[in-house]
Amino acid sequence: MTNLFTRFKYQLQADLHDFFDKKESKNPISLLNQYIRQAEQQTEQTGKLLTRQGQLKRELEAQLKETEAMLAKREHQLKLASVSDENDLIVFAQGEVEAYTTRKVGLLSSIDVCAAEYFELERKFETMKHKIKDMKVRQLQLMGKENVVHAHHQMDKVLHNQDTSNFEELSSYFDDIATKIDHKYEVTTFESRLAKLEKEQKLITTNEEPQNHAIVE
């Protein structure tokens, strides 16, 4: 267990700012995504080891309970053997009591060690999960900054674009269209006025013709 956490120590306890201050050629967000995935995998593995450690502790406690039960049984049997002066049974019962007593002491010590190790593993496991949460928050912050940078970049390309030839060409194109429309309108107007004059002239001519015939007669 100690070797496992020694391997993760510098990665999981490193300051995130130091991580991002490194001049990497890759995108920092991509590096962070990879780092988070690795940390999540390590945390998952650690969670499995923690679960296994809890199972071992429960198995030791079960062994202790069984040992204490057998010790109590053998102590009672030793008393019965002593009362009946059965020497062979006394020797057997004494050996059993000594064996279970020794086992009980060993199990109590192992359980204490296992409980301390489990508590330490659990504490570090929670620390690892907090680190991952912190990294995910940092990930969101960086993604927000990246989005703002891209947005500013896109807007600056429009606002500070020095090449206005496209706009000038488009403006010239519309000016040409407007000129043609105005010219066509003027031509149409002239034709309308001329047609009106011709019509008026015909009316005058028509009205004058009878008078001319009367003079001739």
- Element-level helix/strand string: HHHHH
How many beta strands in the DSSP annotation?
A: 0
SS-based structural class? mainly alpha
Taking pLDDT < 50 over at least 5 consecutive residues as the criterion, the unreliable ranges are none
Give the overall shape, derived from the CA principal axes.
Answer: rod-shaped
The main β sheet shows up as: none
Strand content: under 5%
Could you explain the architecture of this structure?
This protein is an all-alpha fold and about 220 residues long. It has helices spanning about 1-10, 15-20, 30-85, 85-160, 165-215. The mean pLDDT is about 80.
Short description:
With 217 residues, this protein is mainly alpha-helical.
Write the layout of secondary structure elements.
Layout (H helix, E strand, L loop, with lengths): L1 H11 L3 H6 L6 H57 L2 H73 L5 H52 L1
Keyword list:
single chain; 217 residues; mainly alpha; 0% strand; rod-shaped
